[in-house]
């Protein structure tokens, strides 16, 4: 996004909203490159309309997905505007949206994302507490707010397992399918409890603002699913990216808020670690890796460490690949 494009987009959006020609001022534009999929720009926006004077730090998010009724844009917008959610969770305020341009203009939260902090047990607990608040909301409260999107996929777990199966089918090594069959078998006796899942709950998507309040961003993957998907995903991602184990304090904070026992979380961790590692098998089997941003491949080693921890099986090819990147496997 260039400054001129940003200007055009914002003018078009505000004019559409107000129905009159609008002059605006934009300064201090920064493009955020830490996100993975979308274009994010932060800047100061000011304009005057009649007696109204708007002058704020804002974030413009342009979604790369196709605009349709269940797009990531629509999903995130609906969640950010949900009054049921806002009662329990801090999210950025939406100033404007434009569904033709696929953009949202929202409040810039002043603070730092959790990955930038030197995290202590206190903050891991807080990170868990916030997820507890999200999961605690009775999904019935969302019915009115979420009428125009579909957050509920029937049989989410089965669909998830089927997708994994379709992936693993293509691998030359049959051992992966055997492990997946074993895992699938274990899930047959699991009792599910569905809640609103954030869907991508990791340190980069939560900001600690200047008042020490945690504000949750990036709701594009929100869905109604078993509560352990969010928990396991968060733990697997936290370890793969940052090499830290924050399970105990995070779950401590989470349970303090929900007051509910967490059962069979390891099974979900096994599932998500299976997913996170097998996504990378094509690399190990020789596909082009030049598009990989983080060339250190340490994150791949960690995904493998978790995989071995939960599935109890080592793979020579994976270890040879890691070795070629200068990395050695140790059991964790
Ligand atoms: N409202 C906001 N206030 C402050 N920073 C934001 C805001 N929205 C996004 N960011 C910054 O941009 C990054 C990427 O935004 P995010 O919504 O997570 O998009 P992506 O889907 O690309 O990850 C965040 O990790 C955060 O650093
Ligand atoms: Mg994000």
UniProtKB/TrEMBL annotation:
Residues 47-255 form the Aminoglycoside phosphotransferase domain. InterPro entries: Aminoglycoside_PTrfase (IPR002575), Kinase-like_dom_sf (IPR011009). This is Phosphotransferase. It comes from Heyndrickxia oleronia.
